[in-house]
Each structure stands twice: as structure tokens, then as C-alpha cells.
## 1
Amino acid sequence: MRKELVGLLVLLLMCVGGITGCGLLGEKEASTSGQQTNDEEEKKKEETSEQKNDAVKKKESESNVTEQSEKEDDKDSEKQGELSKEETKTESSKSSSKETQAAVSQVNWGSYWTRDINTDWADIEFTERKGNTLKFSINSMHTDNAEAARGGYINIGEIKGAAKVSGNVATQITDEIGSGCMVKLTNYQSYIQVEPITDCSGGGGLGVYFDGKYKKGDLPMPDWWKEEVSNSDNSTEEESKEEQDQSTEQEQATEDTEGATEEEPSEDTQTLISREQAIQRVKDYLNLSLENMHYIDEGDTATGKYLIRVYQYQEATADSTEHEAPYGYFIVDPKTGEVTDVNND
């Protein structure tokens, strides 16, 4: 009986131990399984976080590349914009230069223009042209009337310098003579209108002026002042014949009363001085110590006297080109050698 109870007790203990052991094993297995699940979840989280970080880094790198590319594109566009501006400026400057040259070239300034007023004859000469700049000179003269002209009483003046051209207008910008006279020239194709823009009273002798209308071409100056010469020549010849007759009668009377005497030369038979001597008379009259003075024989006046032009040659400087600076006109009587300053009479 006791053996059976012991056996049952042993079996009971074994059963209890088996149940307890199974529970422990189940708990262990459950714990192990939960831990594995947690580990897998953490790994998944880490992997997800790493993937997110990689994606963020990738986006940041892509953003940096995009920004850098955009910056480079902006720089390229700026460079292209600057190049385009420079090209536009260059093209506009070329275009304006071409337009200016075309405007200048469309106006024909020619070489010679003439103000054909008998008592106030003048001419314009264009000597050189560079781009929109013209070099020119204006020579003007004045005399009161034909009688004054025949007597050689003529005043002269000159302007010389450079003018800047804009369209059909040339405005003087340099004064090579230093007279202070500056003018504006407007080209109307068939004529040029000259207008003073400063005081030109010092540009020439008494009565000389430069403004007015100048016709195209180098027009020859007519001998208008010689129109009355024929009548005066006839009267002069008649007076000369009368004087000769009177002289002959006086000579004959003298020979009859006093005998043969040496004849005195009449005005018509007096020895005339040569043109070279006339120039020397002018040199002695002026007695100048200036260098580069020139004395030019300009022919005879209407009364048969010598007309000598005097000027000083001035070499080119930094401010002006070589030119002739007029000094004056002088009349020399071929019979007496008397010198007369035209500008002082």
C-alpha cells in the first residue's frame, strides 16, 4: 500500500515538474521570439532611418548640384547679357558712325565758292577734309567804288581754320590766323551761307566782312572797275598831246631866245623804275626785321602803278598748319618811286 502511494507521489511530482518545465520552456521560447521580433523591428527602423538619411543626402547633393548649375547658368546668362550689351553698343556706335559719315558724305562741299559782289568780292577754299572736319580759308576784299579800285585803294581780310561738320552745317572750331573771327557755314548745295559767330571786325581792313551768300565755283572777277577807263584814257591822251604841243612850242621859243639848251625830260619820257626796284622801295619803306617776309608783284593798278603784296610765311605748329599771314598791299608809283600803304589811305 505504501509502495503504491510512493509511486503515485512520484508520478504526481513528475507531472507537476513536466507541467512547470513546459511552462518555462514556453516562456523562454516566447521571450526569445519577442526579443527577435524587437531586434528585427530595430534593424528595420535603422535601415529605414539610413535609407531616409541616404535619401536626404542624395537630395542635398542633387540640390547642391542644381544650385551650382543654376549659378553657372546665371553666370553664363550674365556673360551673354554683357556680351550682348557690348555687341549692341558696338553696333550702335558703328551705326551712328556710319550714319554720320553718310550724312557728311551726302553734302558736297566742293573746293571753291564765290561771293560775286563787285566792291566786296570774296571766295571760300576748302583745302582738306578728314572725317567730319574741314579745313578752309576765306579771302575777302573791299573797295568803295570803281574810282577807288582804279587808284588801288582796296582793303583785304582773311579767315583760316578748321570747321566741324554736322549735316549741312560746318562750324569753325580753330582760328589759325588769330584774328578772333569765327564763322558758321551752311551748305545749301547751290550756295553756302556764311554767318559770323564771333566779332569779325578784326579779320580785315576797313569795310571788309565775310558773311553773305557764296555761289558754287571759282568765279572769275570781272573788270568792272575798268568800265570808265576808256573815257579817261582818251582824255588822258588828249591832255598828253596838248602838253606835248605846249612843250614843243616852249622849247622852240627857248631855242630862239636863248639858243640850244639841254632839254628836260617830260613826265612821259621820264625813266620808269623796274618792278624789282619797286619791291625794294617797299622793303625800304617798311624796314621790317621780321623773318620769312615775302614781297609779291601783283601786277599793275588801273592807273599803271605797281601793286605789291606783302605777307609772312608761318611754319606749322602744334596748333596750326603752315600758312601765309597777310601783312598788307602797297602801291608804288613807277615814275616817282613813291610808296603808298593801301590800308592806311
## 2
Amino acid sequence: MNLAKKGKLQLIRGAARRGPVVLVRQLWLALMDSLVRKRHLVFRLGATSCAAHSQAGQDAQQVREIRSREDLTSDELASLTDPEAAHDWGMLEWLDAGWQLWVLTEEGRIQAVAWVRDAAHSRDFFVPLTDTEELFWHVYVLPEYRGRNLQGRLWNTIVASKISAGIDGFYTNCRDYNLPSRLNILKTGFSPVGHCNEYRLTHHRTWRQY
């Protein structure tokens, strides 16, 4: 059993600092995910719900869309692909697949990344998307920059840009053991719409809509 593979050990250490109740809950969810089933929590954010949260700029931080590998500087690319850091940020091949990469930087350093997929590239998601909905597939904050609400800031800036382009709804998901990510998603204004259980032994999936 490899609890470290998805950052579970890091989450467990963080939960231990917040007290025994949080630690026990985190341990239980991590063990269930590793041994029994993966539970994918699905959330949706409507344009009317997020208008108050969204804003275009954030102090000295910059958010930009990466359309090709050439849009990343050599230093940015090196920081993401450093094998010793082993960042779970995604892969460059996702750009080739038509997914959108957004980065938040400050002083030339990438602090957080977000992968966004339009409806045409989200056919395999748990719920169908309309042509005016998009999916926040993967959001990652580099470990040294965590605890600054960069996930929410990156989301808000992207959402503001997307709304101005005619997008009126957004989906995202996270695993149930990732309690910090779930909290950040809810803080951003997303509402839960359902969850999918994927059982380890049988690989059977069950969907429950709320």
C-alpha cells in the first residue's frame, strides 16, 4: 500500500498538526481510498454564483494561459519537470491533447498551475458538459507556496476570463481524502453535485447525484 503516491502522507502530516479528530478522519479516508474504493467528488459553479468571487488581477502575481510548450520559459519548464521535486502538476502531452494550461507566476517563478478542458475534451467526465461549460481538471500548487489561497486566486482569475468569453458554468472534482482541496473548492463557490465510487477490487463504478 503506497499512501505517498497521491500525496496522502503529506495530507496526513498536515492533519496531525490540526489535532486528533482531523487526523483520524484523514487516516480513515486515505485508507479507504488506498484499499477499498476511490471516491471522486464532483462540484459545479455557475457564472451567476461566481461573479462576486471573480477578479481579473492579483497584486504582483500573474496568470497566463500556456498554449504550447514554447510559451514556458526554460526556467519554468525546468521547475515543473524536475525529477527530484516530482511535482504532480500534469504533463506536457496534455497540451498536445488540446487541454488548456494556465499558470500563476511571481517574479518568474511558477507557483500554481491549472488544467482546463472544454466540453469537447471532457467526454470522459462523470457528467456531460454543455458547450458553454468547462472543466477544471487538475489544479496544483507547488508545495513551497501552499497556504496562501493561490488555488482560489488562480481559479477566480481564470473564471473571470472564461465568463467574459461566454462560458457560464464550471465543473471540478477531487478525491474525498483530499480535505484541503475540498475546502478550497467550496470556498471558491462550487457546490457539490454528486460523487462516483470506483471500487479497487472490481473496478466497478457507481454514480450518485445529490
## 3
Amino acid sequence: MARKTYTEEDRARVRQALLDTGLNMAVSKGLKGLHLAELAAAVGISKPYFYTFFDSLEDFSLQMMEEQRCRLLRLLEQELARPEGTWEEHVESFFRTILRHRENGILVMTQGEEADQHSRLTPERFQDFRPGQRDFFLRLMALLDIRQEDCAPEVLANLVFSCLLIYNSAPESMPFLFPSHLEETAALHVKFLVNYLGSLRNAKKDR
């Protein structure tokens, strides 16, 4: 049987299909439930062909995160463009969508998955990944009309990640929290975050 020849357009479509399918699998099963054989079969390619796009499953996971960051920026743009509602309501809706990530098709790692993913990366590869994280939050801040001088992107990242981590990891890895009150706690976290971001946005306007 002759080997199939892929054009550059074909390759672009296959790469996007891998990212889309991988994200869907990771959302429903977690990163540990993401298996190369199942992913390749779902997209209709061989396992060796997968490695012409990505060096490893770990590299693929990082590329999935980059794909998701682009989706989240588009989601915020769409939310802010809605004619009805206030800026605060739009931003709160955006963060609530991320908070309820599984039902909205968004991949958010648990504390255990973060530790496992980090352990599989070389220090160099992890450092290569960091600028993309920072750039994402800079772009998020630009959409929210917040200046870097008023809030470091790393601080915003920590605020968002801490909220997600508590909501997503308890009670499995945070047994001393009260799981019966996680919903209320998460709602307050989002409120506090939106109020803080609103104060930064208003501070910029006052200058």
C-alpha cells in the first residue's frame, strides 16, 4: 500500500485536529487519561506520524495549553463585546466560565496533574514555556484595559490560578478545606478578583 502524502494544508488540519481532540479528551478524562494510541486513532493517523508534529506527549500537552490560551482570549473578547451588561458582569461571566471548566470544555489541571506535568519537563523546557504564560496574562490585561504598571501579570496569574486550584483540587489534595462550601468560596473569589481588576481599570482612567 502506498504511503499517504500530506500537503502542508493537510498537515495544518491534522495538527489542529490533534489539538482539538486532545483537549476534548483531557477535559473529560484528565491529562492522565490522554493516551497516544487513542488520540492517534481518533484523528486517523499513526503514532509515528504524531511525532512529526510533537516531540512527546508532554510537548503536546504544553501545545494544548497554548491552544487553550488563544481560545480563552477569544472568549474574553466575545464576552466584552456583548452589548448588554456591565464590564464587571462580563468579566465575572468570563471567570465563572473558566471556573466551571469541565462543563464548558476548558482544561484546568488539578494540583496533582500540575505536579506530574512539571516533573516530566526538563528545566529548560519549563523555562521555555514560561514566557507564553506571561504573555497570555499581559494580553488578558490589555483586553481588560489594565496597565502592567498597576499589576504585574505574574500577580494576576497567581490570583487566577489560586482560585482555580482550590476549587479544582479540593477535597482530594486539600482535605482540610470544607468541600460543602466550595461553590460559595469560589463565587467570593471571583467577586474579589473582579472588584480588584475593576479598581485597577478605574485607576488607569483616573490618571
